[in-house]
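so my prof wants the structure for this chain in the tokens format not the other one, which i didnt know existed until like an hour ago. anyway here's the sequence
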Amino acid sequence: MSESADFAGAAARLLEQYAADPTPSTRVLIVTLFGDAIVPHAEDAWLGSISQLLHPLGITDRLVRTSVRRLVAEGVLTNRQDGRRSFYSVHPKAQATFWRAEQRIYRSKPPVWDGQWTLAILDGDADAGTRQTVRRHLGWMGFGALTPTVLASPTLQPHEVIEELNPKYRPLLILTRSTVDGTAETITDEQMVERTLPLDRLKADYEAFINRYGDLANALLDEADIDPATAFAMRSLMVSDYRRIVLADPGLPDELVPPGWPERRAAHIAARLYRSLVGPSDSQLAAVCVTGTGSIILRAEAYANRFAS
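here's what i got, hopefully its the right format
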């Protein structure tokens, strides 16, 4: 069997799986489409282009319209009309969130660790709804909860938290850096990881990703042999699935990785697939995507640091 047939078969199986269980959602795929493919090259994209790019996944125009309206209502996207055409772009208030996601999704090496933890201590007098909102934001950044009001991260620096957190929430936090006293009979670094991260769930998610995309990664072939529309669909699906996992994983330094941790294997598969698919999928992007200034113009250097070895 040829490599091309191997790829086509693996891609067809993934499309069948997605048709039977459309996860990730259209909303998530559109967020991925903007962060992964549109934002590196352009400020906006025509609604019709978004629909056409997602069509190979069996996503209807109506579902795309419903999903982008929801994203606008949530403050993730913004839109403008030009005649009868609607153009969508990342909302200015969401741009920092997209930037941070970019750093986490496409990182190629584990973070360097100085042996310290950043502790975020929430104001206990704040109302429950506000505390929940702040905890959610901190969790997205990569913090895990030790207690309802104390969260910890081995890699985030206090200044990164301050820069990203909504200014109105900053007065509700005490941020400090500290080491775990390994000489005392207290919680260890390893126990901190176990307490603050859903390790079992993350491990299962990484292993499911490996099982789902391993065959596709093994069917590597010359870029010219890959159908551009299928390549874009596979790229969008893979990045969306990978994104969901890594944004729930703060990225452990080598010193804190549990034995047999599958994250590096999953990252290797994601990187191999991305490098193989980016060429033909960008051909589809260039052929289909219309922006507010005309056909999208691809920037050759846009992906230079993605999965860099």
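also thought this was worth mentioning. The chain has a mean pLDDT of 92.
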